[in-house]
Amino acid sequence: MIKSPRGTRDLLPPDTALWNFVEATVRDVFRAYNFHEIRTPVFESTELFARGVGEDTDIVSKEMFTWEDRGRAESDRGQSLTLRPENTAGIVRAYIEHKLWERGLNKFFSIGPMFRRERPQKGRYRQFYQIDAEVIGPAAAGSQSPARDAEILELVATLLDRVGITNWTLELNSVGCPADRAKFNEALRRALAPVVDKMCADCQRRAVTNPLRVFDCKVPADQPIIETLPTITQFLDEACRTHYDEVREILEAVHIPYIENQRLVRGLDYYTRTAFEFTHGALGAQNAILGGGRYDGLSEALGGPAAPGIGFAIGEDRLVLSLMETVSAESVMRKPDVYIAPLGAGMNREAARLARELRRHDLVVELGDESFRLKKSFEAADKIGARYILIVGGDEVAANAFALKHLVSGEQVTVPRAELAQRILQTK
């Protein structure tokens, strides 16, 4: 039997009802904050991620699904393509390519699959789903303001609360500007030199290529060493320190709780200044639901104009997993309002006509078959959780009035055809 590839899985009913609930709620929240949906390709030029995410990151160096295009067109051959491992770089690429600033657009969101060759574990898959939000634009439009950072964080808090995840924790830090990080990296190299040989192989490599990535390490034995290393806050210049202070002041003004985590650096090279994660205890040791931060130089790195930005990516798989602690998929899954039971030859046609009329009123209708005995129709209606069963036989059609039975209370009434929809809607 052919099964789904390792690190992937099928999303099945009733769980998909919970996914749809999350996505509908997310869209409502984004609409309130004036974000607009953008849909980018699921594969991009490999160069986009090498330049945008960073060649020394684990994502680019170890986790991407990359291949060489073998297309028929000569211009395609030899081009390196990659299934997107994240979508910030793709959204910024689209912002540049289509000159979206000329349309006055600067707030975007996307929902879709991403791909990383990771070791599958609880809440982490090789094909996973992300909800991305980005604010990008000229500094003159206020995109560089700490108010944008605070607004993004307030949006996330609102979104999580609205979905039903209330016991989240916001961890906050500033990773400064490139000049700050250059000084910090040099200090890290000096601090790591006498101890790095006692750390894991990844940390030994990172200590040479990009010392900041050492803070991404999750190996328990390395944590005591990491705790002794310098922190980025010691190296922030005055402008970055002021920006960070203002972000925190606004969060306190709108009553968004946070804790400072000076070891939080995020895993991508394009981050500047504000960096954050929202965590949730239901996910265990790998407890991050989402993360993000500011990336003021990403547009220029991709060949675009200066366009400061800030955004976040929610791991939708992990968000749904957290939500399942308190909400069942069945509780948000809409069950059929009515099961139509045609009785006798020629009644399928009449049942289909009734179903079409009722569905026009946004009722969920399930059709039986004229070959079913009445007992089988009742069993089928009960199995799918229908609220009503509507009996359609020759006598009912002739009278243009139908037997409607509530399957929980057992109440049965005869209802004229013109009143059926309203009668069913009354008990929704």
Question: Could you explain the architecture of this structure?
Answer:
The chain is of the alpha+beta class. It folds into 2 domains: 15-177 and 237-323, BirA Bifunctional Protein, domain 2 (2-Layer Sandwich), CATH 3.30.930.10; 334-425, Rossmann fold (3-Layer(aba) Sandwich). It is built from 16 helices and 16 strands. It has helices at 15-32, 46-54, 58-63, 88-97, 146-163, 178-192, 201-209, 223-227, 238-253, 298-301, 316-323, 329-332, 347-359, 374-383, 394-399, 420-425; strands spanning 36-37, 43-45, 66-68, 80-83, 107-115, 127-136, 169-174, 259-260, 272-279, 288-294, 309-315, 338-342, 365-367, 388-392, 401-406, 412-416. The chain has an 8-stranded mixed sheet with strand order 1-5-6-11-10-9-7-8, sandwiched between helices. A hairpin with an 8-residue loop joins strand 9 (272-279) and strand 10 (288-294). The radius of gyration is 28 Å and the shape is elongated.
